[in-house]
Design goal:
34% helix, globular, 196 residues, three-stranded parallel β-sheet, alpha/beta
């Protein structure tokens, strides 16, 4: 995409300008910049989740297809969380406090019409982020910040996307846990995931 313009009510804001990049399978890329420069806007634009506005120009190509030209229903059915997913900034606070981790994973699979083995799929993704199956019976308040962060990464990986946007996935974690999360993401990249 060369430029991302977003319309908010009657105003047009040039939210991102002169951004162009390509990622292949197993590649990763880091975006660095000061607060407010558009890093998160880039991520939510790729997910087509810009709140309070519409993307009115620019291109985002996935396997040669411009995902900005897809209908919302087509994007939801075929792309969102299945081919592209996102770990949102501060996402570990987004876990629902009244449902167990197992219930929250089950709900994601139900919402996306998953027809495979729920338990096996959930166990595989939990193990991929170096957590034990026992975490599934717990509630968010029973878990550390690092465990919750790994769980939201697992949620982003649940439907086996090709590309994951991780928006400051180590924010608010201590240095040791930050290193564990970065190593986890590196290992997932080696298994075929592309990462921004």
């Amino acid at each position: 995409q060369r430029q991302m313009c977003i319309r908010d009510r009657n105003n047009t804001v040039h939210a991102l300008d002169s951004i162009e990049f390509w990622l292949k399978e197993n590649e990763s890329m880091g975006i660095a910049g000061e607060s407010g420069c558009g890093k998160t806007t880039l991520g939510v634009s790729i997910m087509r989740k810009v709140h309070g506005g519409d993307i009115i120009s620019g291109k985002i190509l996935l396997d040669g297809e411009n995902i900005l030209e897809m209908s919302d229903s087509e994007f939801d059915k075929n792309i969102r969380w299945k081919k592209i997913s996102m770990v949102f900034q501060g996402a570990m606070n987004a876990l629902d406090p009244v449902f167990s981790i197992q219930q929250q994973f089950n709900e994601i699979l139900k919402q996306h019409g998953f027809s495979g083995d729920f338990n096996k799929t959930i166990q595989n993704v939990i193990n991929s982020v170096n957590l034990d199956d026992t975490v599934l019976k717990k509630y968010p308040h029973e878990l550390s910040g690092g465990m919750k962060q790994r769980l939201v990464i697992a949620m982003a990986l649940l439907l086996k996307p090709k590309f994951v946007v991780a928006d400051e996935p180590t924010t608010a974690l201590d240095v040791l846990i930050q290193a564990q999360i970065i190593n986890l993401l590196k290992n997932l990249k080696k298994k075929g995931m592309s990462l921004m």
